[in-house]
Amino acid sequence: MNWLENIRVVLVGSQEPMNIGAAARAMQNFGISDLWLVAPEPRVRQDLVHHPDGSMAYRLAVHAEEILDNLKMVETLGAAIANARLVVGTTVREREIYTGAMVSPRTMAQRVAQVAPQGKVALVFGREASGLTTDEIDLSQLIVRIPTSPKQPSLNLAQAVLLLCYEVYGAALNPPEPAKAQLAEQEALKQFFDDLREYIFRIGFADEKRLPYAIRRFRRLLHKADLTPGEVQFLRGFLHQSRWYAQHGKRP
Fold this sequence. Notes:
It contains eleven helices and seven strands.
């Protein structure tokens, strides 16, 4: 179960300090301690600096104060997931097309248990009022929608964190065989998709209006491939050489 230390909970745009504390307590219940906040609302920032007196987050983080003491705060989701080998996004919205595979919490946990021995896995949760944006969800290889009653489909943020941490902990108790191939980190994937965006625009495959749609389709295709670091480097080399050839018309 040592790989539980590689599980990172990422909360994007958090609005309520109490939810931060309750989420930390849920993480502590299931042996997960790496908490990152992405661009939290000012009231959250202010609350956290009021520790030990007057902080609602610390009041709710019963026996999990250390997680709040050591949390990381960054301004972009990209910074929070840069070294992750697998990103799991969460959503309450039902859509037909996502760039990542839509899976159940239990299926997600099994995949996390395969990848986490390699390195960091990020579980990403969105804003209390609106969740993750489409662009944020597109950074995920796996997407989880927790089944709930139609009468009340939306979960409290801390409840969602608890449920996914519970499933991951359950998978840690009886883990599947680890993944055989090491997955590329998100920073390498970002660099590749940046190269790809420039490439398909320059060759006229998509204009500015259709470029985001084209990139989403490529993401959907390539997320299925579970690219390794070497494969990402190979693809970037292919793009660079193709661009050079298109400009010079001959081999170097």
